Amino acid sequence: MHIHILGACGTFMGGVALLAKRAGHRVSGSDQHTYPPMSTQLEAEGIELYEGYEAAHLDPVPDLVIIGNALSRGNPAVEHVLNEGMNYTSGPRWLGENYLRGKNVIAVAGTHGKTSTASLVAWILEHAGLNPGFLIGGVPKDFGFSARDGQQHFVVEADEYDTAFFDKRAKFVHYRPAIAILNNLEFDHADIYPDIQSIQTQFHHLVRTIPGSGTIISNARDTHLEAVLEKGCWSRLERFSLGEDEADWQVQLVKPGGSELAFFHGGKPVGTLSWNQQGRHNAMNACAALAAVTAAGVDPATALEAMHRFAGVKRRMELISEVDGIRVYDDFAHHPTAIRLTLEGLRRNIGNARLLVALEPRSNTMRAGIHVNELGPALVAADRVWLKAGDGIDWDPQEALSSLEGQGRIVTRTQDMLQQMGEAVREGDHVVFMSNGGFDAAPRRFCRMLTDPGP
């Protein structure tokens, strides 16, 4: 079958393209910007890519067109598909109805921690010799790519964003997992959902798809998830928690920064973990992953050994440079809660060392100002903050940072921000760049400034 993918260079759709190719299909694709690393990864697999969305790319007519959720009515390729009556579907639906059928699907859902937790689960299964397939919205360092074919087990990052312009259900309702992790639930995607209740409805729909023989691993401390489960739960339910809650699975911090953890199941010790990750949020991710792989049949001792070797995920507090005692991190930040937890975790580890943060509010929800009152408090662990206020922000950035007591700076140009940061940074500082977009390559540009400061 010839499958053509519209929006092929996105992380999710690129993963779908790779999986379709591995399944034996002839695959081609189009995107507005065909760029590395995804473009080179696809082309290395023999997938032909086209720049832009021209109707000519669909001649001869493919057997199936898979349309990404970034495309909408008015797009030339979309209009051509509809006018010509071509066979089309969405990426999540194709994945669920074709590729995932018959596999043991482990889905990781939640507002935060999906990529890290899914990467952990995939790595544990790999370490256990189970050769899992996966489709993850980031690049696990242990694998070096975001999607691959596998054997019986398949790990999927289960996004609550909508499926396509013709299917406004959440992506994850198409996956029909046997095991589902519900990490947390907060209001996000304000361009799609009007309120938290509408997102809870989508999570309820996910719960409805999990078989009675399946397992749900849910955050015991999340009241929004508890409200979802109260709507109905027909599967085995295990809750996880940080601390002393009466949850089925518990994790405790042996060291305050989270680099050493202790796990308990049913109140009984399971084992301890020393690893390279940090923060309470990563401790919770580890606990959820441990519960999920145990449900999949992996021995907990094997899982803990795998997590000890876990290398992390690119752009999740990734240390990208250390020059003259200055450590620079790149972090994929999109929500005030994630920003706060990440910075608090780093603060516990670095003590009184200075923490400099550059933030680009890029998600639709952040740019709309939905979380503007939470933004300043999320950044209080930092000693100095630069916020890049670009086009599309109609709230007062200075007011948003008022709780930082003068330590916040507003810039509109990346070059100005980098210049100010270069003048402020000194030996021993920790510098974090936070954005769920490209940030004008600011992290790498800053690293080059440190190694080659110029005249």
UniProtKB/TrEMBL annotation:
Taxonomic source organism? Elongatibacter sediminis
Keyword annotations of the record = ATP-binding, Cell cycle, Cell division, Cell shape, Cell wall biogenesis/degradation, Ligase, Magnesium, Nucleotide-binding, Peptidoglycan synthesis
Function (record text): Reutilizes the intact tripeptide L-alanyl-gamma-D-glutamyl-meso-diaminopimelate by linking it to UDP-N-acetylmuramate.
Any one GO molecular function term: ATP binding
Q: Does the keyword Ribosomal protein apply?
A: no
Q: Which HAMAP family match?
A: Mpl
Q: Which residues cross the membrane?
A: none
Q: What is this protein called?
A: UDP-N-acetylmuramate--L-alanyl-gamma-D-glutamyl-meso-2,6-diaminoheptandioate ligase
The family database entries (InterPro entries) matched by this protein are listed as:
Mpl, Mur-like_cat_sf, Mur_ligase_C, Mur_ligase_C_dom_sf, Mur_ligase_cen, Mur_ligase_N, MurCDEF_pg_biosynth
Q: Which cofactor names does the annotation list?
A: Mg(2+)
Q: What class of enzyme is it?
A: ligase
Q: Which reaction does it catalyse?
A: UDP-N-acetyl-alpha-D-muramate + L-alanyl-gamma-D-glutamyl-meso-2,6-diaminopimelate + ATP = UDP-N-acetyl-alpha-D-muramoyl-L-alanyl-gamma-D-glutamyl-meso-2,6-diaminopimelate + ADP + phosphate + H(+)
* Pfam family membership, one: Mur_ligase
Domain of life from the UniProt record? Bacteria
Similarity comment: Belongs to the MurCDEF family. Mpl subfamily.
Binding residues for ATP? G110, T111, H112, G113, K114, T115, S116
Q: Which PANTHER family match?
A: UDP-N-ACETYLMURAMATE--L-ALANINE LIGASE-RELATED, UDP-N-ACETYLMURAMATE--L-ALANYL-GAMMA-D-GLUTAMYL-MESO-2,6-DIAMINOHEPTANDIOATE LIGASE
Q: Ranges for the Mur ligase N-terminal catalytic domain?
A: 2-97
Which positions fall inside the Mur ligase central domain? 108-293
* Pathway given in the UniProt record: Cell wall biogenesis; peptidoglycan recycling
Q: Which residues form the Mur ligase C-terminal domain?
A: 315-437
The EC code for this enzyme is 6.3.2.45
Which GO biological process categories is it annotated with? cell division; cell wall organization; peptidoglycan biosynthetic process; peptidoglycan turnover; regulation of cell shape
